[in-house]
Write a structure and sequence with these properties.
Elements: E1 6-10, H1 17-33, E2 42-46, H2 52-62, E3 67-70, H3 87-92, E4 95-100, H4 103-108, H5 113-125, E5 129-134, H6 138-142, H7 148-157, E6 166-169, H8 183-200, H9 203-208, E7 210-214, H10 222-226, E8 233-236, H11 243-250, H12 252-256
Parallel strand pairs: 1-2, 1-8, 2-3, 3-4, 4-5, 5-6, 6-7, 7-8
Helix pairs in contact: 1-2, 1-11, 5-7, 7-8
């Protein structure tokens, strides 16, 4: 089965709505100038909540083929939840994807596996594809706890009956540190995630689920990861704020001669 590669940019808490407009325009124009094949590779951006409406309006008005994702959502659909954002609202903004369980949410906001699971269900209710982020800390890595990202995936999707899913393996020790897992290390973990998903959840879901690598990804190292058979794309952090750099990452096939 051929899985369409997915290149996603997580802007985190960067760029206001005016900066977002300029960044989206430059990214789209750069890719269009290079005759980018959007049918063969999905390009997804995850701006801050305050940027989503501006980005959506621009994408729709200009016919850009970029896809919107949100950086998080509430496990609740509506009500007295000050500061939370419902999946219903995101769906109305044509967010096709949503990041769930990013390591910064797990660490800074103490999000548990149980809350991540509830958010996956919320995304499913509103027809948004969850990008479930998993990964081990430096302490867990040093302790040989290689099962951590696998267990996080299984806890996120158990009993959900979900039919479409993206997983982003981001070793916490490689996020924003400049330290990068080797392509072989990433492939080994991602293969283990896929095998466990097949064995314990659903073989068909495991086969079609795209699993991304994230952690200090740049244009000069993306090719090594995407040559691997089980790595279906990347989740990019800081480098996605630079339109030209992110466009070069999205054009990874030029780097690997495909």
């Amino acid at each position: 089965m051929t899985r369409t590669p997915l290149i996603a940019g997580n802007w985190k808490m960067n760029l206001d709505h005016q900066q977002a407009i300029a960044t989206v325009q430059k990214l789209a124009w750069t890719l269009d100038d290079a005759d980018f094949d959007y049918e063969g590779v999905e390009v997804v951006i995850a701006p801050p909540f305050t940027d989503l409406r501006s980005a959506q309006t621009l994408i729709d008005a200009e016919g850009f083929k970029l896809i919107l994702a949100a950086q998080d959502l509430s496990d609740q659909d509506h009500g007295a939840y000050t500061g939370d954002i419902s999946g219903e609202f995101l769906a109305k903004l044509n967010c096709q994807y949503v990041l769930i369980g990013h390591s910064e949410r797990r660490m800074i906001h103490n999000e548990s596996d149980q809350l991540v699971h509830a958010k996956v269900l919320a995304a499913k209710r509103h027809g948004i594809v969850p990008i479930v982020c998993v990964g081990e800390s430096l302490e867990q890595k040093n302790a040989g706890q290689t099962e951590v990202p696998i267990n996080q995936v299984l806890e996120a999707v158990k009993d959900t009956g979900i039919s479409e899913l993206v997983i982003a393996y981001e070793p916490v020790w490689a996020i924003g540190t400049g330290e990068v897992a080797t392509a072989e290390q990433a492939e080994e973990t991602i293969r283990g995630i896929r095998e466990s998903l097949a064995e314990q959840v659903d073989e068909g879901l495991a086969e079609k689920t795209r699993i991304l690598y994230g952690g200090s990804v740049k244009a000069n190292n993306v090719a090594g990861f995407l040559k691997m058979p089980n790595i279906d794309g990347v989740l990019v952090g800081g480098a996605s704020l630079d339109s030209e750099e992110f466009a070069n990452i999205a054009r990874f096939r030029e780097h690997i001669g495909v």
